[in-house]
Amino acid sequence: QVQFVESGGGLVQPGGSLRLSCSPSGFGLANFAVGWFRQAPGKEREGISCISSSDGSTYYSDSVKGRFTISRDNAKNTVYLQVNSLQPDDTAVYYCAAHNLFCPNLLPRNYDYWGQGTQVTVSS
């Protein structure tokens, strides 16, 4: 089955940091843009960042700009999301998914190969 596997989540205090990882199962990342998304309980899935395959262009939602950094290592077939200055509102399940070559936008419906997600909980 072709999908992503996310890891790196956990429980962190406000102001803390995590590095989330995302690797595909069953295909290589080189020709795909990869987006990160999150879904909090009772809320819709929200697109927060994307990195293109061609030139590594990055995009962020206003809610995470300046605090989160997306990067990719095609040799390791992995995309990372460094999440800093975490706040309780960042608590959610974080997912990654792919789009062919470029980042179309941050709308979940435009991405494929969803994984099971990794839980991030920010609490004191």
Q: Can you describe this structure?
A:
- It is a single chain.
- The model has no long low-confidence stretch (mean pLDDT about 95).
- It contains no helices and 10 strands.
- The chain has about 120 residues and is mainly beta.
- The strands form 2 sheets. It has a 6-stranded mixed sheet, with no helix packed on it. A 4-stranded antiparallel sheet has the order 1-3-8-7, with no helix packed on it.
Secondary structure layout:
Elements (H helix, E strand, L loop, with lengths): L2 E5 L2 E3 L5 E8 L6 E8 L6 E6 L6 E3 L7 E6 L4 E6 L8 E9 L17 E5 L2
Parallel strand pairs: 2-10
Antiparallel strand pairs: 1-3, 3-8, 4-5, 4-9, 5-6, 7-8, 9-10
Mean pLDDT: 95
User: Which range does the strand content fall in?
Assistant: over 45%
Helical residue percent? under 10%
Q: Could you tell me the number of beta strands?
A: 10
Structural class: mainly beta
Any low-confidence stretches, pLDDT <50, length ≥5?
A: none
Question: How many H/I helices?
Answer: 0
Strand order, main sheet: write it out: 2-10-9-4-5-6
User: What Rg is obtained from the alpha carbons, in whole angstroms?
Assistant: 13 Å
Shape: globular
Write the element-wise H/E pattern from the N-terminal end onward: EEEEEEEEEE
- Taking the alpha carbons of the first and last residues, their distance comes to 38 Å
